[in-house]
Every structure is written in structure tokens, then in C-alpha cells.
UniProtKB/TrEMBL annotation:
GO terms for cellular component: cytosol. Transmembrane segments: none annotated. PANTHER family: UDP-GLUCOSE 4-EPIMERASE (PTHR43725). The keyword Magnesium does not apply. Its EC number is 5.1.3.2. Keywords: Carbohydrate metabolism, Isomerase, NAD. One of its GO terms (biological process) is galactose metabolic process. It catalyses: UDP-alpha-D-glucose = UDP-alpha-D-galactose. One of its GO terms (molecular function) is UDP-glucose 4-epimerase activity. Its cofactor is NAD(+). InterPro entries: NAD(P)-bd_dom, NAD(P)-bd_dom_sf, UDP_G4E. This is UDP-glucose 4-epimerase.
Amino acid sequence: MEPIDDRVLVTGGTGYIGSHTVVEMVEAGFTPIILDNLCNSSMESLRRVEEITGKQIEFHNVDLLDMNKLEEVFENGSISSVIHFAGLKAVGESNKFPLKYFDNNITGTVNLLKCMDKYRVKNLVFSSSATVYGDPHKVPITEDFPLSTTNPYGRTKLYIEGIIEDVSSSDSEWNCILLRYFNPAGAHPSGKIGEDPKDIPNNLMPYITQTAIGKRPILNIFGNDYNTIDGTGVRDFIHVVDLAKGHIAALKSMLKRNKGCHYYNLGTGRGYSVLEMLHALEKASGKKIPYQIVARRKGDVGSCYADPSKAFRELGWKATLNQDDMCRDAWRWQSQNPNGYEPITENEQKIP
Ligand code: NAD
Ligand code: WQD
């Protein structure tokens, strides 16, 4: 494929969604330049991305809070656009350390926007989240739903959306796409890259796969008294490769100079319950996964799934992978990498 003459800075590019997006970018002919401080990722993910793509990727170990180093990347970079993934994302941790979240996510984004403004790089794709819809009054959720938040992490996404909107309406050169992800799941079909929580997983899917492989004794299901198909929470799980492709669609739409600030839901439009996901992973792994029902988790909502039709209409993107694909790929990643990107010990080699 002819390379697209477009050097795109990817902040957070060694993380879960960033690494999958970098793979798709290379395949689509873009030149990704990764910036990451590795606070929640590792160089091994970059090495694996290079293995999958067969390309060497430019990497900068830079913290968005370090304005001098950030400027150097822009000064020497010939960057045309930015995809901004970098941020902290653990809801529970954000309740304990809100200032850390405001500093890292909000100040980090303001620094990035200042550099972009200074070096006249005014094309931005930002990782927002369905968390900005708070407790939705109905489902499916469209982009014009009222916005609210239940935790400091969510507040950073809400504020950053507002900041980007203000910046883009101050100067008609800006071209911003804000992607509201629903629940990313799964891994690259090669099994080489995937989600690698550094601690006890906060999210459902890595918790399920770690329980299936025996790293966790039992899955706690947070409530079975919601008004859903089986009482457990319903979410719009989206394969991370589909999500990554949503960024390619956004980049291509920016190349057409679609100026302003645009919001899109990236979801499948279909919700699955916690129990449905558990049983699908049992099928994919061939393992019985122990679980128990415990109290609801504070701040959780019953049902949350997208109406993704705006992204299809305007970006030509829609999810194509299904629940079986997500579970198969999540299990392949987990079983081939029981320790994530950490080396496998002799004992673990015996795990199937
Ligand atoms: P991740 O933690 O795997 O990736 C984020 C990356 O950003 C990490 O590699 C981390 O090292 C880097 N980073 C954090 N702070 C930084 C800083 N100050 N300077 C430089 N690098 C920094 O998370 P992810 O799941 O890939 O999420 C990517 C983005 O998508 C985040 O903004 C997250 O809030 C958003 N998002 C994630 C989900 C989800 O469920 N995974 C859902 C909705 C939105
Ligand atoms: C999904 C369902 C839980 C873990 C979070 C953030 C959101 C976004 C995506 C970044 C819920 C249940 C979970 C477990 C369980 N992230 N669950 N046992 O809460 O929809 O969204 O991640 O933007 O901001 O809030 O995702 O994976 O944590 O939970 O029963 O051990 O699984 O109650 O119903 P959530 P999740």
C-alpha cells in the first residue's frame, strides 16, 4: 500500500487501545510516532507492535506534564495530526486521588493543546468515554444525550471535552474529533498484544480472563438486581480492533478537512450482560469460571449501550466483530501471555 504522507503523534500509544490503533495505522499507511511515559504500559508492547507490523516505530519516552520535552517532540517532529490516548483511567483510583487525575489528564491535555497550537498542528482525535453520559435516562445512547459524571475520572473526560470544544471554537483552523468509547474488550488476533492491567483488574473482561486462567480465584459480580435480561449489568462491549479502526476512519475524515469539533459514539449498538460475557468466555476457553454475586458497585449503572449510527453516517465506520470474536481473542491473549507483557516463568509455561 502507498504510504499516506502523514506523521501522526500518538500519545499513550504503548497502552491497550493505543497499541492496537498503531497497528491499524501502519496497515492503513499512516506513520505513527508514539509518545508515552510508560506509567501504565511497557516497551514490550512496542516491540510486539513492531513484530506484528514489521515496521520500526518512532518512540518518545515523554510525560505530557514535561512541557520542555513535549515541545522538543513537536519541534523536531513534522507532525500533522495527534491522536490523544494518554491518561489515567482507573475510576476507583480517581476517587482516592482526584488531584492526580486532574493534573495528569487535564493539565497533560492542556500542555498538549498548547504545543499543538504553537506548532500549528490543529488536527486532534481524542479518547473520550461513555462515562460522560453518567446514568443515561434511556438506551441506546445518542451523542446529544445530557452529560454528567459519577467520579473524578469521568469529570476529567467531561472537562477535557469542554476544553477542546472551547479551543476549537476559538480558531476555525482546529479540526477535532472526540470519540466516546463504550467498553473495549478483546485483543489483537495474533495474541501478541492485549490488555495488561498492572494490578487487580478494574474492568470486567480482564477479570474474567484472569479468573479463567486461575490467577484470580473467583469473579465477583456486582449486583444481579438491575432491570436487565438476567439482573446483571449490561454493557456495549466492543472489540479493540474495531475501536482501533474507528480512529483510522476519524483520521481519514480529518484529511478531508472536516473542521470544527465532532463527537462520535464508538460502540456496537448491542448490549451484553455480565453473565452473558462470562458464559461466552467459558465457551471460548473451555473452562468453568467460578463466580459469586456480591453487592452493587457504587456508581455503576444498569444498562449502557450506544447508538453508533452517527459514526457510520459521517465516518463510514461500524463495528464488524462480535462477542465470539472478542472472547476468542481475549482468551488467546490471556492464555499465551498469562503475565501480560512480563516474561512467563517455568511454572506458568504449564498453564494451557
Ligand atoms: P492504557 O492505560 O492502557 O493507556 C494509556 C497510556 O497513556 C499508557 O500507556 C500510559 O503509560 C500513558 N500515559 C498516561 N499518562 C501519561 C502522561 N502524563 N504522559 C504520557 N503518557 C501517559 O489505557 P487504554 O485503555 O488504552 O485507554 C486509552 C484512552 O482511552 C484513555 O484516555 C482512557 O481514558 C480512554 N478510555 C479507555 C476505556 C477503557 O475501558 N479502556 C474506555 C473509554 C475511554
Ligand atoms: C462492566 C460491568 C460491572 C468488574 C468502566 C469505566 C468507564 C470506561 C470503561 C474508561 C458492570 C461489572 C465489573 C467485576 C463485575 N472506562 N463488573 N465484576 O463500569 O461499564 O466502565 O470502564 O473510560 O469509564 O467506568 O466497565 O468493565 O468496570 O464493568 O460484575 O469484577 O461488569 O458492575 O456492570 P464500566 P467495567
